Amino acid sequence: MPQMIFVNLPVKNLDTTKSFFGKLGFSFNPQFSDDQTACLVISDTIFVMLLAEPRFKEFTKKEIADTSRTTEVLLALSADSREKVDELADAALASGGSPANEPQDNGFMYGRSFQDPDGHTWEVVWMDPSAVGDQG
């Protein structure tokens, strides 16, 4: 069985966050979801556990990062093409996300970023497969 990753993120309003990611075309695994948690499916082995802040606090003794002032994580997703980068970033901005950084265009690599409704930064990146290993 391939190794899986479950990234856990605190969210202020679970319904708002679920609606946002649903508009981006993502689905949720109901087996790992309830009224305080939504399991966002990125791929067969990558999941983001969106946890209402009170539920998230059950897993840590530390304070939850204030994403309006700090960055606790940068989440990067690959895309199959430059067009797919723009498609996902544009959908995020149209669905309640906000811009995070300026687009990065290095020719062989293109990326854009946005913040979700909870202030988590997501990067979407395309890299020309023929250029991998040639840029060192």
What keyword list fits this structure?
136 residues, alpha+beta, five-stranded mixed beta sheet, globular
Briefly characterize the structure.
The protein is α+β, with helices and mostly antiparallel strands and 136 residues long. The chain has helices spanning 14-23, 53-57, 82-94, and strands spanning 5-11, 27-28, 37-41, 46-52, 74-78, 98-99, 104-105, 109-115, 121-127.
Given the C-alpha coordinates, what overall shape results? globular
Largest sheet: 5 strands, mixed
Strand-residue fraction? 25-35%
Structural class: alpha+beta
Q: Report mean pLDDT, rounded to a whole number.
A: 95
- Residue share in helices? 10-25%
Number of DSSP E strands? 9
The oligomerization state is single chain
Structure explained in plain terms:
- With 136 residues, the chain is α+β, with helices and mostly antiparallel strands.
- 21% of the residues lie in helices and 32% in strands.
- The chain has helices spanning 14-23, 53-57, 82-94, and strands at 5-11, 27-28, 37-41, 46-52, 74-78, 98-99, 104-105, 109-115, 121-127.
- The strands form two sheets. Strands 5, 6, 7, 8 and 9 form a five-stranded mixed β-sheet that branches.
